[in-house]
Amino acid sequence: MIVAEELVKEFRLYERRPGLLGSLSTLFTRRHRTVRAVDGVSFTIAEGAKVAYIGANGAGKSTTIKMLTGIMTPTSGRCLVAGVEPYRDRRRGTRNIGVVFGQRSQLWWDLSVPDSFRILRRVYDIPEAVYRRNLSLYRELLDIDALGTTPVRQLSLGQRMRAEVAASLLHDPAVVFLDEPTIGLDMLLKEAVRALVNRVNRELGTTVVLTSHDISDIAAICDHALVVDRGRVIHQGTLTELLRTAEQRSVLFDHRGDTPPEQTAREIAQALADVTTSVTPEGRVRVDYPSDRLTSRQVLAFLLERFDITDCYAPEPDLETVIRDIYSSGGTRGGAPGGSGRAGAPEAVA
Length: 350
Ligand SMILES: Nc1ncnc2c1ncn2[C@@H]1O[C@H](COP(=O)(O)OP(=O)(O)OP(=O)(O)O)[C@@H](O)[C@H]1O
Known about the structure:
Elements: E1 2-14, H1 19-28, E2 32-45, E3 50-54, H2 61-68, E4 76-81, H3 90-96, E5 97-101, H4 113-124, H5 128-142, H6 157-169, E6 175-179, H7 187-204, E7 207-211, H8 215-221, E8 224-229, E9 232-238, H9 239-244, E10 248-255, H10 261-271, E11 276-279, E12 285-290, H11 296-306, E13 309-313, H12 319-329
Parallel strand pairs: 3-7, 3-8, 5-6, 6-7
Antiparallel strand pairs: 1-2, 1-4, 8-9, 10-12, 10-13, 11-12
Helix pairs in contact: 5-7
The protein binds adenosine-5'-triphosphate.
The site of adenosine-5'-triphosphate has 12 residues, from strand 1, strand 2 and helix 2.
């Protein structure tokens, strides 16, 4: 559904020299430096996938999405969305694509939400049945009627974002790009937006590309992740594979006997290099270990041999920690199953 091949975007930044003389001299000799915001990014996203596009501030997410939605033309490389190069054929491109994009609005500021929707219906030539089905879905999930006839400019951020998400899906696009779609929404509305996105994906097979700093959006919607750092793809695969790359794992357990858990924790820390131990408020022993130096099998074998364990579990690594680790390593860690890196042919995300 989406193919990016060695996508590059460079910006020229012109230097301004201080003072009046400096300003005058820049009229004659303009010096510039080039910023490479996207540095040869290649990937494919299959039809119907729900992909989190993850990266720290300035990693190149918005620039990539601007190229995928046809707002920007790549410096080199190319991308195809539903078979169309969106920046070459914007008319055909926009029919396939829905977008919720940060500060940009697709609504008319002086008009109400229903009036904006009526215009969008004409622009996209949306069949009556599709328009009605979608409006009733937005009534059911987003309480869209509550926005009434207030002009869009007078809506709160949360109210506007509800309308933006609905507007992006009104024409049943094949792909929807959602950049921070739940910003400004309260907990219930966040859940409603996530439910809507999941429902259109399930019922219509809409491909979803989500950018969000809210990890719970990613966990609630996405099944795949594409992680970028300094303009390059550094990880791609399923969310489960991403979680498996966790650098730190843990095991929690209870055991029989008179030894207090604090003493057990000390014994383990002395016996096993690289682990850290603690006792939870419930009195369980917690063992944290680095996954590149110890396997869960080794840790469990050690614990089973030494202690009469009555209960034991290994919690899933949490997504937030995993993503933070990826950012801090700047893509120098080994890739997850499914591959990482940018060289060669585009790699499949789903
Ligand atoms: N129009 C522009 N002119 C010059 N530099 C730009 C322009 N747009 C983006 N950049 C630079 O390109 C890099 C990537 O920016 P981009 O907005 O794509 O990052 P991002 O991952 O979306 O960040 P954020 O999470 O903060 O939105 C940054 O260094 C940014 O300063």
